[in-house]
Amino acid sequence: MNVQEVRKMFPILDQQVNGKPLVYLDSAATSQKPKQVIDKIDDYYRRYNSNVHRGVHTLGTYATDGYEGAREKVRAFIKAKSTEEIIFTRGTTTAINLVASSYGRDNLGPEDEIVITPMEHHSNIIPWQQVARTTGATLKYIPLQKDGTIDLKDVEETVTDKTKIVSVMHVSNVLGSINPVKEIAKVAHKNGAVMVVDGAQSVPHMSVDVQDLDCDFYAFSSHKMCGPTGVGVLYGKKEHLEKMEPVEFGGEMIDFVGLYESTWKELPWKFEGGTPIIAGAIGLGEAIDFLNEIGMDNILEHEHKLAQYAISRLAEIDGVEVYGPKERAGVVTFNCDDVHPHDVATVLDAEGVAVRAGHHCAQPLMKWLDVTATARASFYLYNTEEDVDAFVNALIKTKEYFGDVFG
Ligand code: 7TS
User: Domain check: are 306 and 356 in the same one?
Assistant: First the structure.
């Protein structure tokens, strides 16, 4: 993988911010988009914008082919059995909420348990808190090891025959840790529970095979994987989706509508009420083509190297604490002694370096780390060692700026 050539495919990266070349290290929040994805969406609106699944006119047929073709690309990308198992949603949050609102509310009662971890993103915590509230089920947490990893022994101890749902993130957006979701799914299944995986930070960065993982549901967002915002995916095993009730009702998702009763379309359309996210799905399909051309294994290896390089360079600066395990994906979360992460991010921004600061939608994890917030640099396929150097040099300037408060 020639990263300089990859960079050239991302028009946004070729600019100055605050008089300095842009160093974009916030891809865990949202990734940048290659020209071919931007062009694909532009082409849809210019040439064949039309509604889908209705009527026979030519543009409508092109739009339907584009939309359903994107579904097939998603299926192949995550190696699902059938396109019936691929539901387009607004993103990871909507996908997890769909499982919680439909499967969760219909299958849980006061005797049952939901098991998650303290490292989850809020969008994999609050939907389960709501299910627990409305069904009377108990929400339980798998404890974390000191370095933020999950020990399977703790999974075995927390998941019981009362557990109906286990929901865990594949890759942490804060620690960068890669969780053993395949092994956790085995424990869930042994106890009769379903396994939900939050794949927001994994699908963009590594090859994912939902059948090999044997998860029951898998959620991810297009905007973190070079695709547009406003679209994401819920994968679900057909055997579950078939039995589940839709959560949104109206046009598109119906078969027959009477005055008092209606029936639903077959999978996957019964979960896609209203005019679907046509341009978004077509853009996501193009992003998948792009990622396949680069190769997911190359992307993972590239980010892994950058993260290791960043960690080794950060170790050169006194007073910088990096959170999370040594083995990780391309996320490096850190704090600088007494300097608030928002101040760190502000000084870095003045140097053209974009990082995120805050709680990263993971307040329980912040509490577990015993901090109120952190700064985070996250890498993607277009980042280089020079980006890491620019980031570390800017951090050294931050240290100088804050003088003896820091270090
Ligand atoms: N799950 C994980 C693990 C995430 O990292 C995010 C977004 C979501 C779910 C929600 O995705 P959405 O597309 O539905 O919003 N994470 C981040 C982040 O780390 N910084 O900004 C957004």
Answer: yes
Our answer on whether the CB atom of 361 is closer than 6 Å to any ligand 1 atom is yes
For residues 319 and 62, give the distance between their C-alpha atoms in angstroms, rounded to a whole number.
57
Q: What's the mean pLDDT in 251-265?
A: 97
Would you give the distance in Å from CA 255 to the centre of its chain?
32
Please check whether residues 16 and 70 belong to one and the same domain.
Answer: no
Residue 174 CB less than 6 A away from ligand 1: no
Contact yes or no for 33/10 (Cβ under 8 A)? yes
> Known catalytic residues?
361
Confidence of residue 400 (pLDDT cuts 50, 70, 90): confident
Q: For the chain, how many structural domains are there in total?
A: 2
Q: Given 257, 275, 292, which residue is the final one in a domain?
A: 292
Maximum pairwise Cα distance, the chain: 73
With a 6 Å cutoff on the Cβ, whether 135 touches ligand 1 is no
> Which pLDDT belongs to residue 56?
82
Strands (E), 38-100: 86-89
124 and 158 together in one domain: yes
The verdict on the CB of residue 201 being under 6 Å from ligand 1 is: yes
- Cα 330 to Cα 272: distance, rounded to the nearest angstrom: 33
| Cα 93 to ligand 1 centroid, rounded to whole Å | 8
Any ligand 1 atom below 6 A from CB of 93 = yes
Whether residues 285 and 305 share a domain: the answer is no
**Nearest residue CA, atom 5 of ligand 1?**
173
pLDDT given for residue 406 in this prediction: 47
Residue with CA at minimum distance from ligand 1 atom 20? 29
Please, which pLDDT band fits residue 12 given cuts at 50, 70 and 90? Answer: very high
Structure confidence at residue 132 (pLDDT) = 98
Structure tokens at 308: 């290791």
Distance 140 CA to ligand 1 centre (A): 22
pLDDT tens digits, residue range 321-363?
Answer: 999 998 899 999 999 987 999 999 999 999 999 999 999 999 9
CATH number reported for the structural domain that contains residue 342 in this entry: 3.90.1150.10
State whether 191 and 282 are in the same domain: yes
- The pTM for the full model equals 0.98
Tell me the residue range of the domain where 70 lies.
37-292
